[in-house]
Specification:
214 residues; alpha/beta; Rossmann fold; eight-stranded mixed sheet; binds glycinamide ribonucleotide
């Protein structure tokens, strides 16, 4: 048997972007709170014409989010909707919904969106909101998923793209990639390898969801 590199990911289902071509540019609204590397992977897949989509707006909730720099690189329009300016999650989600609709968004992509979604957004985009999570769901839901996997002593973890639902990290799973945990891994080293796989599966999972569920 040949040597299989320990950090090679197993993607399930084994679908690539080329397997699920989109017939027209799908309008994606991206929600991001942090560095935006997943947004960057999606924007790059669009720029290199591997993913037939457009991002009419990227909404961010943290005025200092690094995703802004990436958005500028790709020329994506950004809109700050700061949850601190609202008295309830629902009111904030209503503002997000209004913004997405006014930009003609068809599918909502939560790319490192660190907010719990409410029924307001879920009803507005029923079965059209995707989230990425750094574990093999249903294991290690919620915050600090990478640390949870290390603490549990599992030997394999990974990432999941799934439909958003009222219960956190619990909607139907679209695509997952497995990432082995290596001796000496820290949360940072492990998360970095998980993110490599996130960037591979997120654009493909979007294409798969759009073709299968539109
Ligand atoms: C990603 O690893 C994503 O899986 C995680 O946040 C990171 C965002 O990275 N999301 C969650 O933990 C959601 N529960 P990015 O800003 O570089 O895309």
């Amino acid at each position: 048997m040949g040597n299989v590199p320990l950090d090679s990911a197993l993607i399930s289902p084994p679908v690539t972007l080329a397997d699920v071509p989109l017939s027209r540019p799908v309008q994606l609204g991206v929600l991001a709170s942090g560095s935006g590397s997943n947004y960057g992977a999606i924007a790059q897949a669009i720029a290199s014409q591997q993913l037939n989509a457009e991002i009419p707006v990227l909404i961010y909730n943290n005025p200092k989010a690094k995703v802004l720099e990436r958005a500028a690189q790709f020329g994506t329009k950004t809109q700050l909707i700061n949850h601190r300016d609202f008295t309830s999650r629902e009111a904030c989600d209503q503002a997000i919904l209004d913004c997405l609709r006014s930009h003609g968004v068809e599918w909502v992509i939560m790319a490192g969106w660190m907010r719990i979604v409410t029924e307001v957004l879920l009803r507005g985009y029923e079965s059209r909101i995707l989230n990425i999570h750094p574990s093999l769901l249903p294991s290690f839901k919620g915050i600090r998923a990478v640390e949870q996997a290390l603490d549990a002593g599992v030997k394999v973890t990974g990432c999941s793209v799934h439909f958003a639902s009222l219960e956190v990290d619990s909607g139907d799973i679209i695509m997952q990639a497995a990432v082995p945990i290596l001796p000496g891994d820290t949360p940072e080293t492990l998360h970095a390898r998980i993110q490599v796989q996130e960037h591979r599966i997120f654009p493909a999972a979007i294409a798969l969801a759009v073709t299968q569920y539109s």
